[in-house]
Specification:
By secondary structure, this protein is α/β, with parallel strands linked by helices. 33% of the residues lie in helices and 14% in strands. The longest helix has 19 residues, at 417-435.
Length: 613
Amino acid sequence: MITQRDKILSAVEKPTRYTGGELNSVIKDPSKVDVRFGFCFPDTYEIAMSHLGLKILYHVLNKREDTFCERVFAPWTDMQQQLKIHGMKLFALETGDEITHFDMLGFTLQYELSYSNIVRMLKDADIPVRAADRDETYPVICGGGPCAYNAEPVAEIFDFFQLGEGEDMMNEAVDEYVKWKKSGKKNKRDYLEAIAKYDGIYVPSFYDVTYNADGTVNEIKPNNENAKPKIIKRIMADFDSAYTPNSIVVPFGDVVHDRVMLEIMRGCMRGCRFCQAGYIYRPLRERKSETLLGLADDLLSCSGYDEISLSSLSSSDYSELAPLTGGLLDMTEKKKIGLSLPSLRIDNFSIELMNRVQAVRKSGITFAPEAGTQRLRDVINKNITEENVLKSTSMLFKGGWTNVKLYFMIGLPTETDDDIRGIAGLSQKVLDEYFKIPKEERAKNINVTVSTSSFVPKPFTAFQWEKQDSRDMIIKKQDFLKSEIKSRRIKYNWHDNRTSYLEGVFARGDRRLCEVIIKAVEKGCQFDSWADHFKFDTWLEAFSECGIDPDFYNMRVRAYDEVLPWDHIDIGVTKEFLMRENEKAKAAKTTPHCREKCSGCGVAAFKAGVCCE
């Protein structure tokens, strides 16, 4: 039978974004489940289908006989137009049903600039944006992901957030929903009080926020007896036995990461002071190599993919990397399946491993020195040296690689012109390593690419109190670096200062920003991470109309005794530790990684992973 959805697919640019029906997708009879759950990703199909968390939670929920989880992605502008023309609402991929009266909708918050798409999707579904305006006839709206650790700018939109790893939390939230639904769904508050007792569940409406005369937060106080003063994140302590699907949905069209992703570990032991992921996912926990090899075989068999990638924050820190890659290569070489190793550290890089890994197909290599001088690398606790960089790139060039990318940040705390000049200097030294190889022995067509992003201070990092460089200052630094790069063989790419500015505002923002987000969407903002759709001037208009100065959130240094908008959230890493790290950064003193020496960050309380080695 031809549905209304089918009729409009010919009018959109990429119909496969909306058809569903892919290999290994799950179809159930909606009339035979208690909970219809929409996993909502606030970006396009190509971005969403590359997300590992979606792959995991989709199957976690569909394992349940009482639950049917469907996927819901942000419709592109052509589909939005068709929905409006035909009087349709946002629908789910698996059934094509409108999501307006699903039981639960779960949004993943991966990036601050996706907030406008969350509002847009709710509007496309004809669901009231604010939680206070939704009664029991509408879906319960929940959120998770890295931005949920300070989701205050969108707190008024969500009924609750899941802080930490959702494999168990999601089941608990659904269990309580089933009980509430069977009791008659008389009052949404009853359901929220039931889930608030679980660690990791944050119900924003159960907390009142007051402000000082200068605009800073005065107090974050529970207003419900079921709300905890501190919400502590949840982790999967035994990561080796944590659920992971042995089947994945294979997309019809091209997606960003179109391959099998093998999550080898969670967390990081390095302690880079700018890196939010490195702190919020602590402690480092690993899967056993034999577990991963079995999983890899299942995923390759069920998907037909010809590439597999190791997923982690720092793959070369995985303690069983040699037996894992050896086993994977035995599995993949004979089948001509590619194996990629992202997130390699410069200081434990193995050319022997890379030679074998890329025997099937040679791709470029990306290293992240992050800063151009040793002083600034010590400030950020990167714990790599110029010698590490040059030695690794020299080995690559001798091994036949000619495509090297170097990733840096500009605008880091204490940065000077010498640090920026050092980026150009280090990049030139990398290029020089290529030309040290005799002409008849080196590969042709050298390509060194330098990329800089603008530093954005994030919650739960050692730099959460620091100010962010102004847009004018970032432009000045970018121009200075351009002038310092002399060789035409070095290509320089840089990040848009406007998106970094907005990211900084929402990263450390409070609840007063929710009105700005809704206003900006009403004025046409959406897909803000897409350059051709980003409307910076419209955002500034929205701030002005709401009477909010965005500079307040990122153009000032915050005192240690200031109440931060996320102070009621506990990630396990103590605030005292982050203060110590901030002071060590000012003195350019480094901290050893977790396997070298425990730094007393606080996550040992979880009694898991590297803390128990």
